[in-house]
Specification:
131 residues; alpha+beta; Nuclear Transport Factor 2, Chain: A; four-stranded antiparallel β-sheet; two-stranded antiparallel sheet
Length: 131
């Protein structure tokens, strides 16, 4: 059983990829992420697994890039969700820190991400980098 890259816990045990983000990444058409935090976690897993199409499909069409390129020298090290809150029935924020290593140098991406619900599916809109 492979643990999920997002590191989500159930009790003290890390969920497997299949139990966690795998169901969204592998069954995008039939199994959308049920909430903003799950979408954010699945997008982190998609970055780790270099699943560009999932990332593009879950990105708000007004903000999504034409394509994504992955740096082969980036190694993702972990994800910590700091906070998540609903701003209304179809808008939410998730604050997270994603750790990575690039050319041996540790980095942290600390972001407050915005999400929007449309047609019963959550989408990543954009984010603000935090210190």
């Amino acid at each position: 059983m492979t643990t999920c890259p997002c590191g989500r816990l159930q009790g003290k045990k890390t969920l497997s990829y299949v139990q966690c983000c795998g169901r969204y990444l592998e069954s995008f058409d039939s199994t959308p992420a049920p909430d903003p935090e799950s979408l954010m976690r699945s997008r982190y897993s998609a970055f780790v697994l270099e699943r560009a199409q999932y990332l593009l499909d879950t990105w708000d069409e007004k903000h999504r890039p034409a394509q994504l390129d992955f740096d082969p020298d980036v190694k993702w090290l972990g994800l910590a969700v700091k906070a998540h809150r609903m701003l209304g029935p179809d808008h939410a924020e998730v604050e997270f820190i994603a750790r990575s290593r690039l050319h041996g140098i540790a980095t942290r991406l600390h972001e407050l991400s915005c999400f929007e619900l449309r047609d019963r599916r959550w989408y990543y809109v954009d984010g603000v980098m935090l210190k």
